[in-house]
Amino acid sequence: MFDGFLSESIIKRAISNNHIEVEIINFREFSKEKNKHVDDYQYGGGAGMVLMLQPIIDCLKQIKTSQSKVILLSPQGKTLSQSTVKQLTNLSDHLILICGHYEGFDERINHYIDMSISIGDYILTGGEIPAMVIMDAIIRLRDQVINPLSLQNESFDDYLLDYPVYTKPLKYDGYQVPDILVSGNHQKINDWRKQQQIIKTLKNRPDLYKKYLKLKDRSK
What we know:
Blueprint: H1 3-6, H2 9-16, E1 39-41, E2 49-51, H3 53-63, E3 69-79, H4 82-89, E4 95-98, E5 115-118, H5 128-139, E6 171-172, E7 175-176, H6 186-204, H7 206-218
Parallel strand pairs: 3-4, 3-5
Antiparallel strand pairs: 1-2, 6-7
Helix pairs in contact: 4-5, 6-7
């Protein structure tokens, strides 16, 4: 599942230029069961198989260092946000992401992790896609991966969505680029963009707009 993700575009260049290193480990290799299975029925009965501790923890013991931070991908974790991504970027140079399957993990795994993260209030078939989401979000913030200017004024900075952007042609199918953007007055352009950020956030994400207002009040 990770082959395409790791061999395209920005992620591929980051790896090729040694800005990041990614290692995919199948904890099935650490299973002590005869057929190498890593799941079993849950105590107390109930539908669905549960991932066993032994293969995961034995894997962790082999790859974890004193600098490692272990992150469990779980619907029960903290919901991922851009502020959390920035926190993770500075958390450690060695992040271990544990991807789940089936009905979930043996609850005792929480004794071996540093934090748990969810990418949203929905259920997927496994933790691989959430892992890719987290990796992509973190990698692009690492030094030298992309142009620092591209990271300025992004969506979710200060809880605001990004301002609208346009390119050629100036007119298309009756729709025209706002006059302010071709005025050459950079101060007015910046003011317009800030206003548009506020308008878009209020319209599309009122939940973020409320956070923006609180942040604005605290900064007074």
